[in-house]
Design a protein that fits this description.
- Helices cover about 10% and strands about 50% of the residues.
- It has about 260 residues and is mainly beta.
């Protein structure tokens, strides 16, 4: 297990970038590598957790066979101007640290850890937009769950400004939801919360990405995303929000 974790972490070195900041349109890159820095602001669904502000470096690379985009790194199995099939390894940042909560009951729960996933993705590009299907599975025995994502985007350009509205739905399995939002009998006894077991559920989302060329090589990226959580998540006594929001800002240099 340690060996597997080391290999996956190696694939993702330097790619600590939230997906909200990966704003280059599919099939619209005229460079192979970009480096920069960004900041992410996001709300938390967990009770007692404040809005998080997270600065981090940005790295985006795409070659003929390998890529690093945001929190994912992988390889293309097939790629042409219309279709793209890939396998990837990703870092899943979802987590809960009981000691950081302001809620007395939440502080008595167990921590939930982030993990690594491995999966596959298929993208279809056409004049009417870009659709993408992705399935990933936990490989570190953290939540032993699956996450599937289906999305649609319509990227277009206004002079130096690239605009990318997008929408989609995320499905998370019973094991995934129960790990991050379930309350065991032991936790219920310690905290006074009711015991809860979560099932699988669908969480729709929508957002808008903007990318502006400050110079020929320097880009500024802005992104906003809103996600409505499934009832299996919002019914949890750990959760006090139905909707989460995230905002991203970044500056990158293209080589």
């Amino acid at each position: 297990m340690i060996r597997v974790k080391s290999i996956l972490l190696f694939l993702l070195i330097g790619s600590i970038m939230h997906p909200a900041l990966a704003l280059a349109e599919d099939g619209d890159r005229n460079y192979d590598l970009s480096l920069g820095a960004g900041v992410k602001i996001s709300t938390s669904e967990y009770k007692g957790e404040d809005t998080k502000v997270s600065p981090f470096p940005l790295l985006d690379y795409e070659g003929e066979y390998l890529f690093i985009h945001g929190l994912s790194a992988g390889a293309f199995l097939y790629k042409d101007p219309t279709n793209e099939l890939s396998i990837n390894a990703s870092y899943l940042p979802q987590s809960f640290d009981a000691s950081e909560s302001d809620d007395r009951q939440m502080r008595r729960l167990d921590d939930r850890d982030s993990t690594m996933t491995v999966g596959a993705a298929y993208s279809l590009r056409a004049d009417w937009g870009v659709t993408k299907l992705e399935l990933s599975a936990d490989v570190l025995d953290t939540n032993n769950g699956f996450v599937a994502d289906a999305s649609y985007a319509y990227p277009f350009r206004l002079s130096f400004l690239k605009v990318k509205p997008f929408a989609g739905v995320e499905w998370s399995s019973e094991n995934y939801n129960d790990y991050y939002y379930g309350v065991s009998s032991g936790e219920a006894n310690r905290s006074g919360m009711r015991e809860y077991s979560a099932g699988n559920g669908f969480s729709p989302y929508a957002g808008l990405g903007l990318k502006y060329g400050l110079t020929q090589d320097i880009d500024m990226s802005l992104n906003a995303k809103v996600k409505r959580l499934s009832e299996e998540i919002t019914d949890s006594p750990m959760v006090d929000k139905d909707v989460t929001y995230s905002f991203g800002f970044g500056l990158s240099y293209s080589f």
